């Protein structure tokens, strides 16, 4: 059976935004869905995220697909590099890349999630396709940080105007472009 992994961001499940529709569409395409439940908000640590994802490591196959939101887009880079995982398709939603100095005050606990230059280079060597779906009115990342992610992670950009951060406050309940990408890349 085909496998899809959905990685949430800092605030938790994406079911309050595009997650429910995404899971319905993936199920129709015959995917078994895995949704790690990472620590959120002030309880976040990189170690706890690694420990949670390790529970699913034996399920990851070369043709598994990954859909990541926000912080999950950074985490997947670190996780794949640490575990030397090669993968066919990753779709990031609101993937942005901050410099350490650009992290919001009070959120310094997220700095360990920011991939270093060597991790970005190793990640690119491991993966065949990475897309980044992003918007111009994201309230978390500035446009140059979203575009930096595209450049540094070698992501194929998919720009959707006026969609915010694609989370709870954005009001986005579906992103059909995700399924379009999956269909085109898994023919």
Describe the structure.
With 187 residues, this protein is α/β, with parallel strands linked by helices. The protein has helices at 19-28, 46-54, 71-83, 117-126, 143-152, 176-185, and strands at residues 2-7, 31-34, 65-69, 89-93, 130-134, 156-159. The protein is built from 6 helices and 6 strands. A 6-stranded parallel β-sheet has the order 2-1-3-4-5-6, with helices on both faces.
- Mean pLDDT equals 95
Amount of beta strand:
15-25%
SSE order: EHEHEHEHEHEH
- The dominant shape is globular
Helix content percent band? 25-40%
Note the total helix count: 6
**Number of DSSP E strands:** 6
- Class inferred from helices and paired strands: alpha/beta
Widest sheet: strand ordering: 2-1-3-4-5-6
Distance between the termini: 15 Å
Which sheet architecture does the biggest sheet show?
A: 6 strands, parallel
Radius of gyration: 15 Å
Outline the fold blueprint.
Elements: E1 2-7, H1 19-28, E2 31-34, H2 46-54, E3 65-69, H3 71-83, E4 89-93, H4 117-126, E5 130-134, H5 143-152, E6 156-159, H6 176-185
Parallel strand pairs: 1-2, 1-3, 3-4, 4-5, 5-6
């Amino acid at each position: 059976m085909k496998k899809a992994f959905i990685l949430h961001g800092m605030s938790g499940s994406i079911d309050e935004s595009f997650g429910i529709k995404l899971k319905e569409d993936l199920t129709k395409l015959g995917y078994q869905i895995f949704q790690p439940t990472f620590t959120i908000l002030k309880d976040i640590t990189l170690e706890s995220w690694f420990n949670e994802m390790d529970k699913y490591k034996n399920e990851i196959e070369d043709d598994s697909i990954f859909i990541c939101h926000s912080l999950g887009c950074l985490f997947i880079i670190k996780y794949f590099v640490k575990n030397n995982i090669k993968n066919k398709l990753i779709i990031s939603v609101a993937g942005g890349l901050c410099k350490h100095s650009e992290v919001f005050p009070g959120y310094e606990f997220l700095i360990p999630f920011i991939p270093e230059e060597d991790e970005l280079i190793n990640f690119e060597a491991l993966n065949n396709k990475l897309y980044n779906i992003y918007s111009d009115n994201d309230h978390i990342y500035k446009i140059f940080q979203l575009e930096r992610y595209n450049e540094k992670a070698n992501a194929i950009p998919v720009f959707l105007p006026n969609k915010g951060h694609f989370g709870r406050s954005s009001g986005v309940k579906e992103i059909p472009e995700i399924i379009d990408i999956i269909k085109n890349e898994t023919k």
